[in-house]
Design brief:
360 residues, alpha+beta, five-stranded antiparallel beta sheet, 8 helices, disordered N terminus
């Protein structure tokens, strides 16, 4: 998962690679970062997941945040540091791509307690917490408002991927010939890593036929006159670092803005996909492919047909389950042909609530 901006400018590939391998913090599937996310790692989002619950009539939504260094894990965090104190983590769940109707679930940590709130808008303002539905202890399952089942805590990183191959992957595209050796080491960079997760089961009755899901984090930043600032947001994995690798300004704007403005960057997205697809030569009409794929990914939200089996793969793109090989999917979408990083799931998930594997 990624956390270092500028994952790819042609002139910065070597610098990125060195930074990637030396970094000791900020990893997962926002999984390389800088800017506000690097400054405030407790609000550095990793991944969004949405899939069918084991419990009939419910859907699971997961938000993960604050990744440890890959391959090393981290020191045992005090429960009061598993989540940032006083900031807001939000699950935005819309009924349509226009983000006009739906809801936002908010989560605020206070010591070892987590407050759950609800706002009757899927695109709630930064810093809003909404009506309180309930609260519970971090590390323990609790109910909120009687119909939401909640668990939050430190977990083994469920994401898996060959992050070390990304610089070579981008460099080969820049040179005009996709390298099959880019991911040849088949090394899962995230073995042993940890992350913090919030897991919620929501009754399907509260959702529409299709849920459009994204996550955000926000806090009051002393560097911004104690104003609320959005640290970052996530939906599709690796969006800033694969699809906007050549456009660092868009990378920053992506984290600080909401999906309702993503149309402003659709041209840059299409151009980047076109270049990659043209290099592989796998698409008879790379222009059309680039435009269609950009439209699929705009706005940057996960769409999930409520009650169905999640499957985050090319040609399906229905929610995202913990076992889905999301990195393969993104690489394949980008280049317009099947692509793999040769890494398989680490198995850090369960089939029963809370679905993630607690780190302690």
């Amino acid at each position: 998962m990624i956390r270092l901006r500028g994952i790819r400018e042609v002139a910065g590939v070597a610098l990125f690679a060195a930074t990637f391998l030396a970094a000791s913090t900020a990893w997962s599937a926002h999984h390389f970062q800088s800017g506000l996310a690097g400054k405030f790692p407790a609000y550095d989002l990793n991944d969004a997941y949405v899939f069918k619950s084991e419990r009939p009539g419910y859907t699971v939504f997961i938000l993960s945040v604050q990744p440890s260094a890959p391959g090393k894990g981290d020191v045992e965090l005090p429960v009061t540091e598993v989540f940032g104190q006083g900031g807001v983590y939000s699950m935005h769940i819309a009924r349509g791509k226009d983000l006009k109707s739906g809801l936002t679930l908010t989560f605020v940590a206070d010591g070892n307690r987590l407050r759950v709130g609800r706002i009757d808008s899927p695109n709630a303002k930064i810093g809003e917490t909404g009506t309180k539905l309930g609260e519970g202890e971090i590390g323990q399952t609790f109910d909120a408002s009687g119909d939401l089942k909640v668990w939050a805590g430190r977990v083994l990183e469920p994401f898996f991927g060959n992050g070390a191959g990304i610089p070579a992957f981008h460099e080969s595209i820049a040179k005009g010939q996709l390298s099959p050796q880019a991911f040849q080491n088949a090394e899962d960079l995230f073995v042993g890593a940890k992350t913090s997760a919030i897991v919620v089961e929501v009754p399907n009755a509260a959702l529409g036929e299709t849920a459009y899901y994204f996550i955000t984090s926000a806090m009051m930043d002393p560097g911004h006159h104690n104003e609320w600032v959005q640290i970052n947001r996530k939906a599709h994995i690796l969006m800033p670092y694969v699809f906007f690798g050549d456009t660092p300004t868009v990378q920053i704007e992506h984290d600080q803005h909401r999906p309702d403005t993503d149309g402003d960057h659709m041209g840059a997205l299409s151009n980047n996909i076109y270049r990659a697809a043209a290099v592989t030569g796998a698409q008879a009409d790379p222009t059309r492919y680039a435009n269609d794929t950009a439209a699929l990914l705009t706005p940057d939200v996960l769409s999930y047909r409520v009650g169905t089996s999640a499957d985050y793969s090319v040609g399906v793109m229905n929610g995202r389950a913990l076992h889905d090989d999301a990195m393969d999917t993104v690489l394949s979408l980008y280049v317009g042909k099947p692509m793999t990083d040769h890494v398989k799931s680490s198995g850090n998930y369960r089939t029963t609530f809370p679905y993630v594997v607690p780190a302690r």
